[in-house]
Amino acid sequence: MSKSMLSLTVNGRTRDDVVPDNMLLVDYLREVVGATGTKVGCDGGECGACTVIVDGKARHACLTLAVSCNGKAVETVESLERNGRMSALQRAFNEKLGAQCGFCTPGMIMASEALLRHTPNPNDDDIRRELAANICRCTGYVKIIESVHAAVAETSAKEAAE
Question: 0.85 cut: is pTM over it?
């Protein structure tokens, strides 16, 4: 089996690891990095539980070879907390019940985070479109959409106060 040196940034930390050329990003993150917030769901890019942000864009880690991220910045759900405190988006998913069983939640949060970075005040259609590649079997998506709006409202209120 062929291996390659992988140099990238994961959650703000530079890493250099030798990995098999066929290792998926989801396996790299979970097994090598220890970022187990990235979930393995369908293993085929259909559920979105493994969604991470690579160079600012949401991407399914189960469809991405780790070596294709050489030189890139990868962010997992673990990257969102600051000083042991959840981000506004994580908090909103918790408080507004956007997380039911919780399995899809890391992927939903990361897809939502990617959306909010390029559309800071999304409408329902923007949110639905961005989350279309993520499946939730528990919520019916209403609480997820409410969670994203709640995070936007909290962030806007905080910025207005500063």
Answer: yes
